[in-house]
Amino acid sequence: MKIVLGEDILRISDIKELGAANSEVFRHQVRESFPPASLKAIEIDLSQTEFVDSCGLGALIAVHKWASSHNGNGAVPVRLLNPPPPVQQILELTRLHRNFEIVKR
Fold first, then answer.
1. Are the beta carbons of 46 and 13 closer than 8 angstroms?
2. Which of 1, 59, 77, 95 is the most buried (most CB within 10 A)?
3. What are phi and psi of 4, to 5 degrees?
4. What per-residue confidence (pLDDT) applies to 17?
5. Of 96, 19, 21, which is closest to residue 64 (Cα–Cα)?
6. Closest CA to 74 of 28, 38, 99, 21
7. Positions in the chain whose pLDDT score sits under 50
């Protein structure tokens, strides 16, 4: 996993899988990377993600909730970029596509 903080966007990429084995590490690393200054968005690139389970979905929800409550200027949108069809299907089946901005580039 790669985390890069731009001027006002936290970008997370190179996620091969998001599941029970690494969901806690994912949560921790994203929280540790969250800057004290306000952000405009968090972008999580899922284009390389081959597997997401319930723990991975829980990690995405935790990041979303944390971002919504830890910004001085209001909620920070969490964008999920380029989810492959199986991941998109899981997001739709669980109705989480309503909580996140899904962006296909």
1. no
2. 59
3. -130, 130
4. 96
5. 96
6. 38
7. none
Taking the C-alpha atoms of residue 46 and residue 55, their distance in angstroms, rounded to an integer, is 16
CB 101 within 8 A of CB 68: no
Tell me the pTM.
Answer: 0.91
2-103: in CATH 3.30.750.24: yes
Q: SS in 3 state form for 12-75?
A: EECCCEECCCCHHHHHHHHHHHCCCCCCCEEEEECCCCCEECHHHHHHHHHHHHHHHHCCCCCC
Element (H, E) at 77: none
Q: How many residues does the chain have?
A: 105
Q: What does DSSP assign to residue 8?
A: S
The residue extents of the domains of the chain are: 2-103
